[in-house]
Amino acid sequence: MKLEDLKNGLLIIFVPVAVLACVFNRNHLARINELNSQLQRISVELAHAQIPMLRDTIRDSIEVASQVVVEVVPKKMKEALAADEQLIKDLRLKVKQLEAMQTTVIETADSVPAHHKPSDSLFFYSDQWADLTLDLKDSTFYYNIRDSLSTVVYREYRYHFLWWKWGTKGYRLKIVNFNPNARVKYNRYVKPEK
Question: Rg of the chain over CA atoms, in angstroms?
């Protein structure tokens, strides 16, 4: 009978320990999967961020940013868009539906003099790209900043002889930013290869 009591005692101890080990292992695997997906997303973002962006101006003051288009085989499209996975889900789309995806980050910065009406506590500034108003009565700052971007994707020819051009070396894009106070900080354009 003592052997039977020992078996029951070990069983009472072993079952909860086994259940706790299974729960811990499941949580640990979920955390590992989450960290792996974050690592994959960050590595894709870093790979895209390393693509240099060339800068130029047209019409003496309009900035143009130029960058190589990232071309991926359709099987790797999901991997290349790992950073935008949640956005694609929110739009109720599948990665295989996408023809191309572009992400552009711009920064607007300027220093301008504010006009003041002596009769009240209102400071304001307005031009083609921004409207700024500071009302000291109710401590409110109103702003409206506008921007205008045009993106052109074009083919770079591999070969050319005199006026003939043929073959495809790759694709590039040019982003024209019409707001002189804004600057393109980051851009990524992903396109599946045909």
Answer: 29
Do residue 12 and residue 87 come from a single domain? no
Q: Is residue 46 located within the same domain as residue 64?
A: no
- Contact between 160 and 140 under an 8 Å Cβ cutoff? The reply is no
H-helix or E-strand spanning residue 69: none
Is residue 137 assigned to a domain?
A: no
Strands (E) located in 1-139: 54-58, 62-68, 70-72, 101-108, 115-117, 122-126, 130-135
Same domain (yes/no): 89, 60: yes
- Domain coverage including residue 105: 53-110+143-192
Q: How far apart are CA 145 and CA 84, in angstroms?
A: 26
Number of domains forming the structure of the chain: 2
Say if residues 74 and 192 touch (Cβ distance below 8 Å).
yes
pLDDT tens digit sequence for 106-135: 777 777 777 776 667 788 888 888 888 888
Contact between residue 63 and residue 147 where contact means Cβ atoms under 8 Å apart: no
Instruction: Tell me the pLDDT tens digit for each residue of 21-65.
Output: 777 777 777 778 777 777 766 666 566 556 677 788 888 878 888
